[in-house]
Amino acid sequence: MSAAIAQQLALVYMGRNLDSQWASATANLLNGAQPSEALQIAFYNASVKQGLFEANGSNSALVNEIFLNIFGFGASTFEQTAWGDLITNGTLTRETVGWTIFTSYLGATDVPDAYKIIAQSKLVAMDAFSEQLFKDASANLALAGGGPNATMNAIYYVDSVTDQATAAIAIADVEAAVHSLTILPGQNYYLSPGIDTVIGTNNNDAILGLSNTLTLLDTIDGNSGFDTLTITSSAAITSNMVTVKNVEAAILTTASDINVDTTTWTGLQALSVTSAAVNNPVHIAAAATTVVNVTNNSNQALQIDGGGGAMSVTNGNGNVTIGVNVIGNNLTLATITGGGSIDIRDRSGEAATYGKSLTSVSIDGPSNSAYLTGDAISTVDIANTNQNLTITAAAGTRSLSLGLDNVYGGAINDATATTVTMTATGAASSGITASFATAEALTLSGNQAMTITSLNLPAATALTVNDSALVTINGYSTANILTGVTITGSGGFTSDLSGQGAQLTKIDASASSGTNTVTINTTGAYLGGSGLDIVTAKAAPTTTVDGGAGANDIFVLDAPAFSLANVANFETLRLGENATGTYSANGFSHLIEGKLAGNVIWNNVAAGTDLTFVADVGMATFYNLATDTSADLLDITLKSSTGVNAGPVLTSPIETINIALVDTNTTKQVNTIAIGDSALKSMTITGNAGLTLINPFSTVISSLDASAVTNTEGTAASGLSWTTGALTVASVTKGTSTGGDVINAAAALAPVSITVYAGTNTITGSSTIASTLTGGSGNDIITGGAGRDTIIGGDGSDVITAGAGADSITLSGSSSKIVQNAGHSGANTTASGVFSELTGTFDIIHGIAAGDTLKVTGATALRDLTLTASNLAGRDDYASFARGTYDAVAGTFTYAANGADTALTYDTSNVTALYETIILVDYVTASTTTIAIIGSDSVITFA
After folding, report:
1. What is d(CA 392, CA 601) in angstroms, rounded to the nearest whole number?
2. What is the DSSP string of 405-428?
3. 430: Cβ–Cβ under 8 A, 6 or more apart, which residues?
4. pLDDT given for residue 501 in this prediction
5. Cβ(16)–Cβ(158) under 8 Å?
6. Claim to verify: residue 157 and residue 283 sit in the same structural domain
7. Shared-domain flag, residues 30 and 147
8. CB 328 within 8 A of CB 304
9. More confident residue, 477 or 103
10. CA 530, CA 511: separation in Å to the nearest integer?
11. Helices and strands (DSSP H and E) totals, the chain
12. For the purposes of burial, counting CB atoms within 10 Å of the CB of 630, is it exposed (0-12), middle (13-18) or buried (19 or more)?
């Protein structure tokens, strides 16, 4: 721990490794603890002395230098200001801000990988450097002495690491990097446009060719030391008739084509090429001892012959071929970014045959297929592609670790690996076809989701899923011989294993805490875990199927009725599309249905077991309780992205049913259910969708409350639609809160109360018994019956048909319409000259306002109005308005010329005078009230 913290301090303040003695002393001071303020001050002062930090520089400049050390890039303006302000206001000091930045970014969980991976990669490379430094006493002494060459080379080593790939490259060359600390700087040599002969010193020379100066017949000898040849050209670069020896590093950069063969350049350890090839493919040849790095900024093809160690290639859309020609190489790692098709071959065998040097390959973003050939390839990472990957190796025992990052298609094939691990990281991968012909075991893991479309494992007996994100296998391309499947981790597993043969005897998910959705065969025992296990069986299991420790496990029965004797520890029983027949619900708390093959009977249902429908059933469901009581309750849920028709649900005598409507998307919908329950007394409907409720066959429903339902369309028949039976008990019905209800209680034989709230609704009371009908804020159609109804129109332009009987009607909306058939209100037989009458048989209307209308059906003889009648008698073929006072308590109307109420008496007969009267409370007609004959009806428009 102390050594690790010492290394971190070195990165933050020095941007390089410490010599072994300094690192050891720092670790001893730390003794496992975080660095003290005094130690941070000491490191800050050492950095100032080295020249990395300026003692008197600005705070923002200091923050920027710290970011460069840790992350390899400068701080943003925001970061410079934010951290600089903390120094200015005294929260931090210049000496301690560096360590605070490091721990803030590396210790938080939500820091982007762009920060963490770079810093972590630098520290890993520094660990390798420290280990090598301990072995190289001369290099350690040079670094301890603080010489500029040793210090700068140590900094250069850390600066060269910008990600995991460059860390691997640095580590592969760490011995040379450490040794370079001992070599003194040499001399700079500049090539001319003519023929040059250069002989270097015994130190580290720099040979520079600027502006197209590497030319025919140039001879370059670096002599001793670690020498670097740097060529920068706007024209094409070729090595034709150029002699180079004793040069350890070559950096070739051109804005044009490049074709170089460095196999004769003796002593060359590292070759770096940057090209923007215009006309021709890029061709690079190097000895098997030379580390090659190529950046091709064009779409030309790239061919590399030879090379060794860790090779890195960044390419455009052109094809990349490495080792295709029979020329020896000695690669250990190949990292490819971009490219069209990729073909990499290990030529480390005898006479440049395929060998065992290349072990790791990383491919990012190819636009075409990748082919890897090598007998020791054991680690392959592929990212950001949907192209095929083929790995070819000689037969034999070989493990393959395959990393996936945003792989969204393609076929992966390795015909000879004997054990395979596929790991999904970075971003989810899907649409993959994978074939491992000789693999005896496959492990799937990672922290990102992985979906395999088709998996070919003809030789594997073991499949292990160990993940923190979901793994899905959608199909198996062959009759695999799996004997066991093991599922661990929190990610979960989805697959249909029913096609596996009888040899699959165990599926063990006991160590899983994720969601596992598995279809089993009949012979395989299943043991669930602590998460959610959803297990489907297409036939009766012959061995134990155990849901495990989870609290919400689901057993899916996708077959005609069979015994559940071997099924245990599942809370929910769900039926699949092939289900039909009689099932025992004993031991289950939840039942789920979707589409069925035939009628279903649930027996032995425990009290409180709920029933959910997730799709159109198309068949009847019978729900039979194990024990019948006088207060049974059934919760039903209709849940889908589209309306569900649950079909008829016939139950044991159940007194209370609650229905929850769950619309899983934003499209409004209406569900349908028919309930057969003769004992049903109370229903409560909730949720966010409409419901068509088909008569539950019960005549004792006293309460139906849908007022908690929201999200209905509000238009006609989009809310609650229900026609009652011949109810024999008084009932109260509440519609949905957003409306669109159609509620018809015409058949009721007892008083009904119906209330709606919003939207367009149609409600009908009992045709014979007094009803209380209350409209909502929308435009409602309200129809009473022959009883003494109480009708409250509510807001909106309502249409109210009171029916026969002495009804009480209250209006509050505008432009409401009242429909009166002959005989709907009480007959008026008052003689002329009588000024008071009883109102017990008359309809009483409250709230008449200008714009409301009264339609008297079949009364075409009403030819005019008497707007100021002087008594209460009717007038043949007239509608007469008489002012007066209505006494609701006494049940009388008394004529008074200045009264606040009105008795409206109209002739309902076209032959003889038959009069009916309606009392209009708090209304006095205006002179602009009109009457019109419309068809066979007379329509009065109030003013």
Report:
1. 57
2. EEE-S-EEEESS-SEEEEEE-SS-
3. 407, 408, 409, 449, 450, 451, 453
4. 86
5. yes
6. no
7. yes
8. no
9. 103
10. 7
11. 11, 72
12. exposed
Which pTM does this prediction carry? Answer: 0.73
CA distance 246 to 198: 11
| Phi, psi for 892 (deg, rounded to 5) | -135, 160
**pLDDT given at position 291:** 95
> Cα separation of 910 and 164, whole Å?
100
Question: CB under 8 Å, gap of 24 or more: what pairs does 491-500 form?
Answer: 491/446, 491/447, 491/449, 491/465, 491/467, 492/467, 492/516, 492/517, 492/531, 492/532, 493/465, 493/467, 493/517, 493/518, 494/470, 494/518, 495/519, 496/536, 497/521, 497/524, 498/536, 498/538, 500/476, 500/524
Band of pLDDT at residue 257, cut at 50, 70 and 90: very high
The pLDDT tens digits for 554-608 are 999 999 988 899 999 999 999 999 999 999 999 999 999 999 999 999 999 999 9
How far, in Å, are 117, 303, 385, 877 from residue 313 at the CA level?
20, 11, 17, 103
Do residues 40 and 175 share a domain?
yes
Model confidence over 211-224: pLDDT tens digits?
A: 778 888 999 999 99
What digits encode the pLDDT tens for the residues 861-871? 788 999 999 99
Domain count, the chain: 6
CB burial string 274-309: b at 16+ within 10 A, e below: bbbbeeebbbbbbbbebbbbbbbebebbbbbbbbbb
| pLDDT greater at residue 234 or residue 752 | 752
Tokens 């670690």 identify what position?
226
Distances in Å between the Cα of 229 and the Cα atoms of 172, 269, 273 are 21, 12, 12
- Sequential DSSP letters for 130-161: HHHHHH-HHHHHHHHHT-HHHHHHHHHHHHT-
> From residue 805, how far is each of 497, 637, 766, 768, 851 by CA, in Å?
70, 41, 12, 9, 25
β-pair partners for 720: 691
List % helix, strand, coil for the chain (3-state, nearest 5).
15, 40, 45
Among 755, 772, 789, identify where a domain stops. Answer: 772
Two tokens, residue 179: 């040794």
The pair of structure tokens assigned to 568 is 């245990």
CA distance 344 to 371: 6
**Cα–Cα distance list, 257 to 233, 238, 273 (Å):** 10, 9, 11
DSSP state of 14: I
Same domain? 279 vs 252: no
Last residue of a domain, one of 665, 691, 717: 691
pLDDT value at residue 1: 61
Domain, as residue range, for 332: 266-394
Q: How far is CA 53 from CA 114, 124, 725, 796, 876, in A?
A: 24, 24, 89, 77, 112
Give residue 149's pLDDT band: very low, low, confident or very high (50, 70, 90). Answer: confident
What is the SS3 assignment for 710? coil
Same domain? For 167 and 217 the reply is no
pLDDT of 478 strictly over 80:
no
In the block, tokens 């709907």 appear at 824
145: Cβ contacts below 8 Å, ≥ 6 apart: none
**Residue 810 confidence (pLDDT) above 70:** yes
Which residue in this structure is represented by tokens 């009242």? Answer: 818
How far apart are the C-alpha atoms of 9 and 26, rounded to whole Å?
9
- Average pLDDT in the 284-310 region? 96
Chain mean position to CA 289: 49
Q: How far is CA 931 from CA 801, 878, 918, in A?
A: 19, 10, 16
- Distance (Å) of CA 611 to CA 9, 580, 605, 651, 860: 63, 16, 10, 11, 57
Which tokens is 355 given? 């060998």
Q: Distance (Å, rounded) from C-alpha 592 to C-alpha 537?
A: 15
Could you tell me where the DSSP H helices lie in 424-520? Answer: none
Tokens of 45: 């002062």
Question: Residue 427 falls within a domain, yes or no?
Answer: no
Beta bridge partners of 112: none
